[in-house]
């Protein structure tokens, strides 16, 4: 199984002969068209041209990749392995053109560049923030020359495509690689065999797991280039396949066509589809299989890579390897590494545990208890019997440690146990993650603080030194340079260079320009042009709430405000014109927020068809929010809505993308909003609402949403309009569920925060009417948001958790 292949680079021929003159580029493009697609310029389809262009660009990265692999082999460095069930990579073509400096060459060489580029499909292998964060971190790791590999699953179907039918969300499959994926390199020789089910027996005093079912994990990788450097890292994605020869010819001959491929289908189902759930625990055996599949393939690959230079030297493993667990989805890596070390490599338990514990770091991305994964003991016992034994052993040793520290504290032991007893026995994956990792981190300052005070309090008391904060960040390459080229050019000309793309703190240099009339005028012009590109009115305030739909994120609060604006206009008021942009997907089974989507579109239909309202208010809900659509929305936004109930949003990253593009935030003291406000200044941020402590107190008291409804005339009118058929052609039942949830429960205190939110919106409007004052705030938001670069996030991880050194790639 160990191929012992080493990625040494043979410098006998200079592959950089892939030159970058217009002739070189055009020749390579033509060569790909002829030899890869078997066609000619005259008869090439848009897809032929796209594929050939993609290969031409990719080949320039492949050469850098070979030099990176050689440098890494030479350095034998400490590696970071990032394990994540999700990656939202975004479109690859524009990024890779930028990173290879071939954008102009491509525009020159390709007859119809825009049509060609439009063929590029975004691999949507994630749900939302967590998956996009993973992609931003990979971008920064490569940019900072850090030796890292991302591991994930190559889902056949990514996050569903959202259609809107009569205003409601309809999900369509995202067959993203249907036309092939030119960015990907298959590596079938590096496949791994993964076991499931079966039984455990004792052989010579050792435990031996005999799986009843095996599946092949076949990897392919996509290139992850750094910006402004020759480093090209990889993200390695596993695809499940049946073993060769699984097709049942006998059954086929008897006309049993479905049965003939049953084994193949069963195996391949493991990487068939991304679970489209965000922030809820979802107990399905296939999902657990996916998680184990990812972990098992990746760990064996990590050991294979370790063995190139350090074969058998297990005492070096944790010094050469750090593995970051992106939330609880890959946490089975902890018992799996124990199983490999103890059962397969025959290390004793204590030594294996030291290695395991020293190897892992765990990032938690939530505070919601319902998002902390737990798995029924019975499910694990059936699917992974040996892992359950190992988890029990870890638990027994761990609980002995807790008892020693807190003798007689039975309640504490029950809370901390890896096994939940009631109402059903389940394994608590977050507890397992904390016990098996040397470092645990939250993703924003407030989040890390609340984790230690609430969700993971017992663990923080036991091991205070294990807990860290690493505030999230976003890549300025994709979310400023590529998304907003005109603004990027303005920034570069103001700062005198584009060095800010690799050191975003340099944006501070823009501060003086907030007082420069000509600069402000140019800043406004760009924002206007970006609105036209998005297709919204250029002179309206563009007010955006774009993110996954979730009750805690309170899209409904934004909608109540929108309804109030509508009612005020109907009553003769003439507010500052604004377009409210909603975008985002809802988990397919999450009916409470699917109703909200339907209601937003019903309100949009009413508002947008009312000529009396048209000069003041529009509601826009573009379907299928994804990275590509986000790249068009952020540059056009004036106002960034970050209005989750305080204490619920771990961090947010859309808030950072919007601030960097000059949107001013209206928000609660939640997640990274707190840090955004600290940096941009309280004067350049519209704050409202309960803080986390106040929200927790109100929620635990006898909260009565109806009191707020009865006391506030505008609130009552907005809520009544939902129930009286105003937006449903007179049908009073159409949104009964939304109404009841607001008035009877209002779990996320929407009504309690309504008035404070409207007051803050009045302040927004006042400032907006003074265009110069608004533009100054917009510029200061960009100038002071450099901290939110994912390069800074990676620097923090490197310093506090990973301890990595860069490896420079020789030109
Ligand atoms: C998200 C959180 O909801 C965001 O606050 C956070 O910014 C990102 O992760 C990145 O840290 N998240 C998610 O997208 N999916 C989950 N299952 C849990 C958290």
Low-confidence stretches: 1-9
Give the termini separation. 34 Å
Q: What average pLDDT do the residues reach? A: 96
Based on CA inertia axes, which overall geometry fits? globular
Tell me the β content.
Answer: 5-15%
- What is the CATH topology of the largest domain? Rossmann fold
Tell me the domain tally.
2
Keywords: Carbohydrate metabolism, Glycosyltransferase, Pyridoxal phosphate, Transferase
GO molecular function, one term: pyridoxal phosphate binding
Catalytic activity: [(1->4)-alpha-D-glucosyl](n) + phosphate = [(1->4)-alpha-D-glucosyl](n-1) + alpha-D-glucose 1-phosphate
EC number: 2.4.1.1
Write the layout of secondary structure elements.
Layout lengths: L21 H14 L10 H30 L3 E5 L3 E2 L4 H8 L2 H7 L3 H5 L6 E2 L3 H15 L4 E6 L7 E5 L2 E5 L11 E3 L5 E5 L2 E5 L2 E5 L2 E13 L6 E10 L7 H5 L3 H4 L1 H7 L16 H26 L6 H4 E6 L6 H12 L4 H11 E4 L10 E3 H7 L1 H21 L4 H7 L2 E2 L5 E3 H7 L3 E4 L2 H11 L1 H6 L4 E3 L6 H7 L2 H11 L21 H18 L6 E6 L8 H16 L7 E6 L7 H18 L8 E4 L6 H7 L5 E4 L11 H7 L3 E4 L5 H8 L5 E2 L4 H9 L4 H7 L1 H11 L12 H10 L4 H19 L2 H13 L6 H13 L9
Parallel strand pairs: 1-4, 1-13, 4-12, 13-14, 14-18, 18-19, 20-21, 20-23, 21-22, 23-24, 24-25
Antiparallel strand pairs: 2-3, 5-6, 7-11, 8-11, 9-10, 11-12, 15-17, 16-17
The structure holds 4-amino-1-beta-D-glucopyranosylpyrimidin-2(1H)-one.
The site of 4-amino-1-beta-D-glucopyranosylpyrimidin-2(1H)-one has 19 residues, from helix 6.
Structure report:
With 811 residues, the protein is α/β, with parallel strands linked by helices. The chain folds into 2 domains: 19-471 and 796-802, Glycogen Phosphorylase B (Rossmann fold), CATH 3.40.50.2000; 476-691 and 753-788, Rossmann fold (3-Layer(aba) Sandwich), CATH 3.40.50. Strands 1, 4, 7, 8, 11, 12, 13, 14, 18 and 19 form a 10-stranded mixed β-sheet that branches. A 6-stranded parallel β-sheet has the order 22-21-20-23-24-25, sandwiched between helices. Strands 15-17-16 form a 3-stranded antiparallel β-sheet. A hairpin with a 2-residue loop joins strand 5 (161-165) and strand 6. The protein has 34 helices and 25 strands. The protein is globular and about 85 Å long. Bound molecules: 4-amino-1-beta-D-glucopyranosylpyrimidin-2(1H)-one. Residues 127-130, 133, 278-279, 327, 365-366, 371, 443, 472, 649-653, 671 line the site of 4-amino-1-beta-D-glucopyranosylpyrimidin-2(1H)-one (C3B). The modification N6-(pyridoxal phosphate)lysine is found at residue 657. Its cofactor is pyridoxal 5'-phosphate.
């Amino acid at each position: 199984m160990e191929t012992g292949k080493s990625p040494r680079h043979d410098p006998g021929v200079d592959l950089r002969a892939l030159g970058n003159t217009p002739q070189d580029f055009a020749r390579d493009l033509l060569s790909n068209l002829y030899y890869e697609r078997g066609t000619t310029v005259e008869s090439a389809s848009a897809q032929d041209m796209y594929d050939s262009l993609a290969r031409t660009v990719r080949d320039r990265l492949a050469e850098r990749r070979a030099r990176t692999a050689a440098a890494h082999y030479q350095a034998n460095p400490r590696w970071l392995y990032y394990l994540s069930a999700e990656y939202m990579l975004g479109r690859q073509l524009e990024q890779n053109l930028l990173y290879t400096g071939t954008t102009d060459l491509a525009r020159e060489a390709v007859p119809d560049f825009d049509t060609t580029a439009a063929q590029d499909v975004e691999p949507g292998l994630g749900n939302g923030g967590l998956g996009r964060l993973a992609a931003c971190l990979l971008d920064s790791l490569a940019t900072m020359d850090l030796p890292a590999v991302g591991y994930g699953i190559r889902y056949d179907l990514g996050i569903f495509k959202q259609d809107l039918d009569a205003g409601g969300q309809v999900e369509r499959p995202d067959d993203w690689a249907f036309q092939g994926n030119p960015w990907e390199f298959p590596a079938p020789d590096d496949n791994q065999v993964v076991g499931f089910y079966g039984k455990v027996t004792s052989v010579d005093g050792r435990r031996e797991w005999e799986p009843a079912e095996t599946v092949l994990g076949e990897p392919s990788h996509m290139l992850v280039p750094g910006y402004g450097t020759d480093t090209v890292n990889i993200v390695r994605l596993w695809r499940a396949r049946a073993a060769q020869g699984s097709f049942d010819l006998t059954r086929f001959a008897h006309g049993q066509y479905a049965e003939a491929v049953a084994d193949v289908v069963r195996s391949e189902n493991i990487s068939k589809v991304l679970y489209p759930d965000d922030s809820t625990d979802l107990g399905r055996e296939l999902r657990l299989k996916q998680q184990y599949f990812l972990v098992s393939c990746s760990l064996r690959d990590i050991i294979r890579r370790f063995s190139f230079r350090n074969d058998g030297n297990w005492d070096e493993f944790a010094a050469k390897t750090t593995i970051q667990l992106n939330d609880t989805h890959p946490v089975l890596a902890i018992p799996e590494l124990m199983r490999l070390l103890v059962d397969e490599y025959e290390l004793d338990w204590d030594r294996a545990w030291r290695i395991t514990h020293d190897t892992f770091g765990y990032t938690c991305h939530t505070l919601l208890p319902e998002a902390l994964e737990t798995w029924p003991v019975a499910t694990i016992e059936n699917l992974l019997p040996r892992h359950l034994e190992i988890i029990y052993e870890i638990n027994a040793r761990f609980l002995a440690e807790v008892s020693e520290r807190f003798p007689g504290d039975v309640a504490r032991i029950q809370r901390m146990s890896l096994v939940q007893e009631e109402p059903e026995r389940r394994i608590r994956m977050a507890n397992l993650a904390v016990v098996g990792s040397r470092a645990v981190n939250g993703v924003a300052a407030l989040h890390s603080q609340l984790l230690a005070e609430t969700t993971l309090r017992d663990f923080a008391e036991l091991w205070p030194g294990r807990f860290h904060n690493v505030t999230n960040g976003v890549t300025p390459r994709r979310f400023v340079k590529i998304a907003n080229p005109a603004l990027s050019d303005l920034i570069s000309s103001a700062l005198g260079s584009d060095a800010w793309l690799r050191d975003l703190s340099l944006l501070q240099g823009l501060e003086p320009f907030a007082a420069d009339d000509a600069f402000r005028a140019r800043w406004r012009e760009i924002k206007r042009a970006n609105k036209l590109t998005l297709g919204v009115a250029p002179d309206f305030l563009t007010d955006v709430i774009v993110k996954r739909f979730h009750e805690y994120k309170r899209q409904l609060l934004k909608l109540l405000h929108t309804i109030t604006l509508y009612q005020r206009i109907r009553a003769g008021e003439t507010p500052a014109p604004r377009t409210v942009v909603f975008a985002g997907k809802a988990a397919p089974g999450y009916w409470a927020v699917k109703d909200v989507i339907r209601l937003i579109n019903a309100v949009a239909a009413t508002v947008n068809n009312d000529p009396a309202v048209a000069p003041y208010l529009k509601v826009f809900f573009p379907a299928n929010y994804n990275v590509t659509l986000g790249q068009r929305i952020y540059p056009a936004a004036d106002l960034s809505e970050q209005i989750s109930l305080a204490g619920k949003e771990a961090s947010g990253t859309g808030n950072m993308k919007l601030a960097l593009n000059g949107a001013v935030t209206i928000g609660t003291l939640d997640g990274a909003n707190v840090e955004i406000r600290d940096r941009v200044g309280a004067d350049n941020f519209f704050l409202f609402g309960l803080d986390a402590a106040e929200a927790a107190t109100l929620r635990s008291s006898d909260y009565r949403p109806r009191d707020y409804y009865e006391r506030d005339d505008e609130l009552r009118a907005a809520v009544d309009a939902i129930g009286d058929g105003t937006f449903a052609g007179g049908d009073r039942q159409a949104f009964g569920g939304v109404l009841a949830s607001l008035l009877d429960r209002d779990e996320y205190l929407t009504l309690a925060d309504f008035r404070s939110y409207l007051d803050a919106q009045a302040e927004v409007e006042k400032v907006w009417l003074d265009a110069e004052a608004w533009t100054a705030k917009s510029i200061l938001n960009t100038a002071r948001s450099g901290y939110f670069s994912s390069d800074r996030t990676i620097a923090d991880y490197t310093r506090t958790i990973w301890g990595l050194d860069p490896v420079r790639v020789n030109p």
